[in-house]
Amino acid sequence: MKKYVSKYLNDEQISNIISVLALVLICAIGYFIITFYLDIKFIKSDMASTTAQLENKLAILQNTIAGTSNDLAQKLADQQNQNNDIGETLNGIASTVGTLQKLSQTDKELLQKYSKVYFLNENYIPLKLATIDPKYLYDENKTMQFHATALPYLTQMLDELQYDNLPTVVASAYRSFGTQGSLKSSYTVTYGSGANSFSADQGYSEHQLGTAIDFAAPKTGTLLDASFEKTGTFTWLINNAYKYGFILSYPKNNKYYQYEPWHWRFVGVQLATYLHNHKENFYDLDQRELDTYLVNIFDPIE
Ligand SMILES: [Zn+2]
Fold this sequence. Notes:
54% of the residues lie in helices and 8% in strands. By secondary structure, the protein is an alpha+beta fold. The chain folds into two domains: 2-103; 108-296, Muramoyl-pentapeptide Carboxypeptidase, domain 2. The strands form two sheets. Strands 3, 4, 5, 6 and 7 form a five-stranded antiparallel beta sheet that branches. Strands 1-2 form a two-stranded antiparallel sheet. The longest helix has 94 residues, at 11-104. Residues 172, 207, 212, 214, 263 line the site of zinc ion (ZN).
C-alpha cells in the first residue's frame, strides 16, 4: 500500500494526511461525546422537571383528598350530632307520650278531694274492682271489693301487719253510691239528724272510689270507733302505711270531716311518703299539687 501511495505522495504528505484524518476523527469523536453528554443532561433535566411536576401534582392531590376527607369527616360528625339531637328529641317525645298515656289511663278521681261542696258523681264506678280474699275480712262471709290495681298494696300491708303480730282486717272497702245511700239512711234512723256529721256524703265518697278502707283490729274488738287510735294497728299504720301508699284521710282536728282513725285511703307511695315526711294532710294540699302525683300513683313499693 505504502509503495502504491508513495508513487504519488511523499512521506511528509502522507504524514500530513494522516494527521488531518486523525484530527477529523478526534473532532468527530468529541462531537459525538459532547452531543451524547448533552442529550443525557437534557433527558435528566427533563426527567427531573417531570418528576417535580408529578410530585407537585401528587401533593395537590393529597391535599385535596385530605381536605375532602376532613370535609366528609366533619359532615359525618355533623350528621351524627343531628341524629343524636333527633334521637334525644324522639326520646323526649316518647317519654312525654308515655306520661300522657299513663295519665290518660289513670282515673283522675283517685286523687280528688271531696269537700262539703264537691261530691263524687253518683254514677261513678271504679274502672276495675277485685274481690278481697276473705281471710283479710272482718266478716269472712261478706264479699268485699277494692280497686283492682291498688289491691296488692293493701294485701301486702295487711300481710306485714300480720307478720308484726298485729292482725288487722277490713271492715269496709268499696261501696257503691246506692250502698252508701242505704247505709246513710240506716245511720239516720239510728242517730237521727246527727247522721250528717257521722256519715256525710263526702266521707263515703272515698269508699265509692274503691281505694278507701275501714280497718278493724279484731284482737281489741274495735270497729268504727275512735278507740281504734289506741290499738297497736293504728300506731303501726301511722308509722308505716305510707310505705304502701295509704294515708289517714281525716286526722284529728281536721277541718274537713270528723276524726276517723280507722278510715285510710290509697293515694300511691310517692304522695303518701311526701305527706308523711312533711307531716301534712291530704286535704290540706292544693288540688293542683295533688294532681301532680297522679302519674306515679301505681308506682311499685320500694
Ligand atoms: Zn270509711
